[in-house]
Amino acid sequence: TNTPTALIMIFGATGDLAHRKLFPSLYRLYKKGRLTDRFAVLGVARRSLTLEEFQESVRKSIVEFTGEQDGLDEFASHFYYQSHDVTDSSSYIQLRELANKLDEHYGLEGNRLFYLAMAPEFFGTIGDHLKLDGLTDTAGYKRLVIEKPFGHDFESAQELNNRLRQAFSEEEIYRIDHYLGKAMVQNIQVIRFANALFEPLWNNRYISNIQVTSSETLGVEERGRYYEKSGALRDMVQNHMLQMVALLAMEPPIKLNTEEIRSEKVRALRSLRPMSQDEVNQYFVRGQYDEGTINGESVPGYRTEPMVDPESNTETYVAGKLVIDNFRWAGVPFYIRTGKRLGSKSTKIVVQFKDIPMNLYYNTDEKLTPNLLVIHIQPEEGVTLHLNAKKSGSGMKTTPVRLSTASKSIDRMNTPEAYEKLLYDSMRGDATNFTHWDEVALSWKFVDAISAVWENTKETTFPNYAAGSDGPQVADQLLEKDGFEWWPVE
Ligand code: BG6
């Protein structure tokens, strides 16, 4: 059926993610009839709250983040709470009893979703206890939904994975990368595999380079403690950026099922050329924001943000060139860049096609611009195709024209859309848009080579870009070396 039943146990139920994304997403699913009355949410966190207080916090989050309150009391009555000590067995035993009661009361058939939306240092401990104290011992399905960061590098990720695998099989682990829940990220494969116009051109004979940009205007906010140890490389590249690259680079899957799609993505990640220390310096650059102005407001530099070392070596910007060693992509660079405190909030993919063999229009004043396919991920969603056509009037002058489906969705950017899809998928048992362990492992190995170099060399030019700018100059030089430039993210 398409209306799954489940007990959803949220660890970290008093946290930001639960309030901003998870509760509103569940409410929307409920409103759409994608959750029947046969569901219960069991919120778990350290803080002691009464049931009334917890349900009130759920109602507040819905009103604040969805602007709606239709059926809200009924919805919130499905929420329960337990103040919990993640290291204490007796606390889990209580949790199990409550879970069993809810199961019976709502007819949940023993289906359980354990959602870890809290500090990653407890992921392993919680996994151990869920098994040890009998919570995974259930008649229905059991699934673990787990937020990033999945480890800090390959080794810690592997350790965490081995530990979780004591309690859950690979099929039961749903590793969240919320970019995979974005409508236009899901659209990449449709654009590629449902269009006769693109599929035959999607290779090194016709594509000159691919650029993936994710820029943010936000700074590090209150997350200095986490971000100091993470930086943009671990925070954005290891997961979101490499996932988009994998979707762009992968071979067509034999079928559109979870296993086939994920194994093609794994193959794409396996073809990423590993880098030596020298190559890291040649192919990757980093930046850190200084104070500056964004939308008319002056903002501080990274080094003066709360919980940040005044001499921090942490990068808030990364640009890099990825080389994919396979028949399809040999010779085609994939450029990626991402950073905080840039001039605009935008995620976009630009596919630049090669020049045609001979330019018949070279002596007009317009230079021929290459054909581009732009995939707008956010805030606009859609695609734009940049072509050349004849300028109106006499003569044979050319002018660039655009075919576009892109539209600015009414501030989709911060809505729980992606989470809504991912939550629904995890309840239906569709893991396609979650990352398989093999993808996580390969991404970490790739990124580890870069951090190994960066952590051992103090970047003396930091801070090297002003807040509100387009990022550091070194990012432009990276493409200039290859005779390319970044297409603007307007
Ligand atoms: C998260 C990072 O994974 O993605 C954040 O931890 C970042 O630092 C966020 O701001 C960006 O997501 P989005 O959906 O706003 O592009």
UniProtKB/TrEMBL annotation:
<dbReference type="GO" id="GO:0004345">
    <property type="term" value="F:glucose-6-phosphate dehydrogenase activity"/>
</dbReference>
<dbReference type="InterPro" id="IPR001282">
    <property type="entry name" value="G6P_DH"/>
</dbReference>
<feature type="binding site">
    <location>
        <position position="46"/>
    </location>
    <ligand>
        <name>NADP(+)</name>
    </ligand>
</feature>
<keyword id="KW-0313">Glucose metabolism</keyword>
<keyword id="KW-0560">Oxidoreductase</keyword>
<keyword id="KW-0119">Carbohydrate metabolism</keyword>
<feature type="binding site">
    <location>
        <position position="340"/>
    </location>
    <ligand>
        <name>substrate</name>
    </ligand>
</feature>
<feature type="binding site">
    <location>
        <position position="235"/>
    </location>
    <ligand>
        <name>substrate</name>
    </ligand>
</feature>
<comment type="function">
    <text>Catalyzes the oxidation of glucose 6-phosphate to 6-phosphogluconolactone.</text>
</comment>
<dbReference type="Pfam" id="PF00479">
    <property type="entry name" value="G6PD_N"/>
</dbReference>
<feature type="binding site">
    <location>
        <begin position="85"/>
        <end position="86"/>
    </location>
    <ligand>
        <name>NADP(+)</name>
    </ligand>
</feature>
<feature type="active site" description="Proton acceptor">
    <location>
        <position position="240"/>
    </location>
</feature>
<dbReference type="InterPro" id="IPR022675">
    <property type="entry name" value="G6P_DH_C"/>
</dbReference>
<feature type="domain" description="Glucose-6-phosphate dehydrogenase C-terminal">
    <location>
        <begin position="190"/>
        <end position="487"/>
    </location>
</feature>
<dbReference type="InterPro" id="IPR022674">
    <property type="entry name" value="G6P_DH_NAD-bd"/>
</dbReference>
<feature type="binding site">
    <location>
        <position position="148"/>
    </location>
    <ligand>
        <name>NADP(+)</name>
    </ligand>
</feature>
<feature type="binding site">
    <location>
        <position position="182"/>
    </location>
    <ligand>
        <name>substrate</name>
    </ligand>
</feature>
<keyword id="KW-0521">NADP</keyword>
<feature type="binding site">
    <location>
        <position position="216"/>
    </location>
    <ligand>
        <name>substrate</name>
    </ligand>
</feature>
<dbReference type="Pfam" id="PF02781">
    <property type="entry name" value="G6PD_C"/>
</dbReference>
<feature type="domain" description="Glucose-6-phosphate dehydrogenase NAD-binding">
    <location>
        <begin position="9"/>
        <end position="187"/>
    </location>
</feature>
<dbReference type="InterPro" id="IPR036291">
    <property type="entry name" value="NAD(P)-bd_dom_sf"/>
</dbReference>
<feature type="binding site">
    <location>
        <position position="345"/>
    </location>
    <ligand>
        <name>substrate</name>
    </ligand>
</feature>
<feature type="binding site">
    <location>
        <position position="178"/>
    </location>
    <ligand>
        <name>substrate</name>
    </ligand>
</feature>
<protein>
    <recommendedName>
        <fullName>Glucose-6-phosphate 1-dehydrogenase</fullName>
        <ecNumber>1.1.1.49</ecNumber>
    </recommendedName>
</protein>
<comment type="similarity">
    <text>Belongs to the glucose-6-phosphate dehydrogenase family.</text>
</comment>
<comment type="pathway">
    <text>Carbohydrate degradation; pentose phosphate pathway; D-ribulose 5-phosphate from D-glucose 6-phosphate (oxidative stage): step 1/3.</text>
</comment>
